Each structure stands twice: as C-alpha cells, then as structure tokens.
Amino acid sequence: MAGIHRSAWVLVLLSAALQILIFPLPGLYWLSWLAFAPLIVALLRTRTPPTLQLKTSPHLLPARPWQGFLLGYMSGILWFAGTCYWVFETMHQYGGLSHLVAFVVLLAFCCYVGLYHGIFGFLIALTVGRSSSLRALAAAPFLWVAVELARTRITGFPWNLLGTVQVDNVPLTRVATIAGVYGLSFEIMLVNTALAAAFVVRKEKRKFLLIASLGAAVVLQAGRWLSLPPAATDHNALLVQQNIPISHGTPWTREYFEGTLRDLSWISTKPPVVSSDQKFGLIVWPESPAPFFSNDPFYLRALAGVAQQTHAWMISGAIGIDSEHSTSGQEPRAYNSALLVTPEGQVGARYDKVHLVPFGEYVPFRGMLPFMDMLTKEVGDFERGKSRIPFQAGDEKIGTFICYESIFPDEVRQFANHGAQVLVNTSNDGWYGDSGAYAQHLQQTRMRAVENSRWLLSATNTGVTASIDPFGRVTARAERKMRTVLVASYMLSAETTFYTRHGDWFAFLCVIISLVAILIAQFSKPKASTTNVGRTGTGI
User: Fold this and answer.
1) Are 278 and 487 in contact (CB under 8 A)?
2) C-beta of residue 521 within 8 angstroms of C-beta of residue 126
3) Closest Cα to residue 433, out of 139, 179, 183, 92?
4) CA distances for 95 relative to 259, 360, 363, 402, 414, angstroms
5) Which residues, 6+ apart, have CB-to-CB distance to 367 below 8 Å?
6) What digits encode the pLDDT tens for the residues 24-50?
7) Beta strand 334-341 with 484-490: parallel, antiparallel or unpaired?
C-alpha cells in the first residue's frame, strides 16, 4: 500500500498486538521491552530503493514522512481499539446508543487518539531526514515522550502512558519520583530502540546489539521480583465500597434512595469484620451514580449521623450545587464534587472536579454537536471546578481528586505540591463493566502514588477499592462488585519528590531535544552511505 513494503505492515501488526498485551487485561508487562521494536524497524525499513524494485529485496529504505505517519497511525488505531474497547460498551449500555452508533463512536475515538502514534511515525521519518537512520534511532525515545506529553496536554487523554506498565517494578519506578511516568516511558523506549537497531544495522553489529538490549531488559525487569519491606503506617481509614448499580435511566424512588442511605450509614458505623475497638479517623464514600446532592437535607443528615457516631472526618462523593445561583433565580450550577464533613457533622469544604470527562460529564463544542447531549443523560452536565487545594481535616491535609483525574500526572502532583499529606481518589468504575478498564485505571492511579511518594486511598463504587503505599504497591483491596468496607492503613508525609516540585520538566526537555533533532536532520547534508544500500541497507 502506498509504496510501503508488505513486511513493514506485518511488523506494524505485530507491534500493535504486543502493545495491547502489555496493558491489563492481560497485562503481560515484560513484553513492553520489545513491543515497540517492530514498529521502529518498520519505520526504518519501509520502502524498496528505486534501483531495486524487487519486492523480495532485503535492502529497504526508511519511510518518507507520510509513510511513517500511515504506519504509526495504523499501529495507534489498533492499539487503542485493543485497550480501550470498553468505550463501545460504555456508549451502548450507559450512553443509550445503538450497537452501530456505539461502534462508530469507538472507531472515531480510535482514529482520533491514534493520531499520536501516527505523529510518532511521522517524526521518526523527519528525523531520518536526508542522512543516516542512526539519528532517528537516537531520537526515538525523546520523540515518544514528546508525543505522550502532547497526548496529555493537548488531547487530554493520557490513558495508558507506556511507563505505567512497570508500576510493580519498585526499584525502576524510583525514576518516576524524579521524571514522572515519562521517565519510565523513556527507559522502555530506549531498550526497544536498541533492540530495533539490531535489525537495521550491519550484520557484524547485530549480535552485540541483541545481547546488549535483551540484557538491559532482563536487568531492568529483574527489580520487579525484589522483596521489599512493607511501608510503615500509623493511621486508619474506612473506605466504603457502595456497589450501587448504574440505573440505566430508571428513576430513583424515594424508598430506594432512603434504603440505600440507611445501608451505607449502617456499614459505615458498624463495619462488618472489624473489631469494635478499632478507630478510624477518616471514612470515605466514593463517587457513585446515586443522586446525592450537596443541598439535599436528607443526604446531609445521613452524612452528619455517620460522622457524629464515629467521631471521624468524612469524604463523600456528591453532586455539588452552587447555592448562590439557585437562590438568585438563575439555573443552579452542578459539579461533580467531593464533600468534607467534620466529626461534628458539618460540611467543612467541597472539592469540585476540575478535569471533566468529555461526552460523559460535559459536551465540548455543544453548539456544533447538539445531538451528543444524549451521552450526558446518565452522568450529568457539570461545570468545571477551579481549585486543587487539599482538604484540611484536623491535622491532616488530604488531596482529593475524582475518578478520571487520576490519569493526569501533573494535575495530581499539584495536590501534593500544595501540601497534601495523603491522596484520596474517589471513583465510580462501574461505567467500565467487567472490561479491563478498571484494572488499567488502578494501574495509573498507583503511579500517582509513586510519583509523589504518598499513600493513596482509592475508594470506588464497584471496585477496585484499595490502599496504595508510596511505592505503588496495593497493601489492601476489597473484592469487586460487592457492598463492603476496607480498612486502609496509611501514613502522612510532608516530604516532596523532585517530580512533585518540578512537574513535567523531563517531558518538556524531551520536546526540546526532539525539535533540535528534527531541525538538524532537515538541514544536514546526505551521507554517501545512504545510497549504498547494497552494503548497509539504511546507511548505518
């Protein structure tokens, strides 16, 4: 297709399949060290030289920029389809779309976010320029991180950043405390690039590069099996997993609403399988599909009752209502919020979700896409919050963020940078059903604990509810899809990591290096070896 040798397409398909396998589910993380090597080889051995038009010729040249884009784009579309397939079920079951329309939405989504893989392929081809492929190999890890940063900051969908697959590799994840998850992505791509180089260089160098790259992968991966002591704890929280079903449009009756609140209050004040002398300083109710409004007296009385009986601070997901607008006759503004309730039963503070889910919590470009309003009918059409200041719960500063916000490294680290001593993520993963999305979400949430060296309490509606230590390890978790509680031990921390203080500095450095590499490639003179394909194939 389009002058691209068929072997390049085979390598792209192989790379896409490997990329899918490294993320949960199934989570074959060790394949991450070689998952991108076939794609890089495809980009550097793409087309037959003009003087050797035989399809069987082994001497293939690097992709032209548009060819690099096509190869990368195909890889990206397939990868997102294989890892974010849950978008289809969410749109069909909870968005009210037909099977056909839900499939079209999934396809459009994959075609959109897959552009970033395409951009990576395009940039690799640009970096080759008129000179040696060696420069493109050296630039590849920097280019990948630059593209990940663009996906985070521009598109706002940093789902499954490459570095998250190594969250269980505690020694290796120390890099994330300095450079964030992007530092891990860089390391993984560095090994992939070295492995790819073995297949595009002269044969006499191939054995050395294969041994070096595979040896590096084994050494770097070995840290996952090191046994490290548990992190110290001195506080207890009670995480309530509500397991409230998503209603599919069925209205809540008052009886069902009150019964649900009674059940949650009972399980919070008299938690099962917990000793009567065990004390909790914090109780967390997650984000949920229940119509819990911040101005509903019945709901607030239930929260106050739990807080007063347990003498604990409470955090609870709710639909925040802007009382100023509701009392002035204007349409009240609604927010996806978390309330902080004092041990005396008063609402002490409210956090309004800043980063909303497009087409789930708001409709972007509403004037241009009015028909997409149907996608917010189950969740709501929310306003954006404006502050990431931690809750002050007595002597504790608690950084609370909601669901989807946990996938944004720089946004979560702002809570710790503002003094949060422990992090709390309230979430409703019921939208994902039984797909791998809940496991992917947990994996990304764990990386936020690593980057900021903070205990993180993940309170979810249907699971996984978990306590996560500063090394990203799950120290306790509740069974999914059941109404239960989890005793989550943790410790406060006031120290900040380099990443917490300085944010995405490394990713921006990669952007600068990438731009320099592209400029050098475009203005460099071609080497004679690039035409001597009979000896080198790619000029390396």
Assistant:
1) yes
2) yes
3) 92
4) 27, 8, 13, 20, 32
5) none
6) 999 999 999 999 999 999 999 999 877
7) unpaired
**Mean pLDDT to the nearest integer, 372-394:** 78
Strands 313-321 and 334-341, bridge-based pairing: antiparallel
> How far is Cα 3 from Cα 328, in angstroms, rounded to an integer?
66
Residue 437's contacts (CB-CB under 8 Å, 6 or more residues apart) are: 84, 86, 429
Q: Is 74 helix (H, G, I), strand (E, B) or coil?
A: helix
pLDDT per residue over 152-196, tens digit each? Answer: 999 999 999 999 999 999 999 999 999 999 999 999 999 999 999
351-363 as b/e: b if 16+ CB within 10 A: bbbbbbbbbbbbb
Residue 522: both structure tokens together: 């475009």
DSSP result, 343-402: TTS-EEEEEE-SSPPBTTTB-TTTTT-GGGGGGGTTT--PPPP---PPEEETTEEEEEEE
The two structure tokens encoding residue 300: 């607030």
Nearest to 338 by CA among 459, 438, 447, 420: 459
The string of DSSP codes covering 471-518 is TS-EEEEPPTTS-EEEEEEE-------HHHHH-SHHHHHHHHHHHHHH
Question: Is there a contact between 489 and 272 (Cβ–Cβ < 8 Å)?
Answer: no
The two three-digit tokens of residue 237, written as one number: 């929280």
Locate 134 and state its tokens: 């060696």
Look at the block and give the residue holding tokens 């609140």.
261
- In percent, the amount of the chain with pLDDT more than 70 equals 90
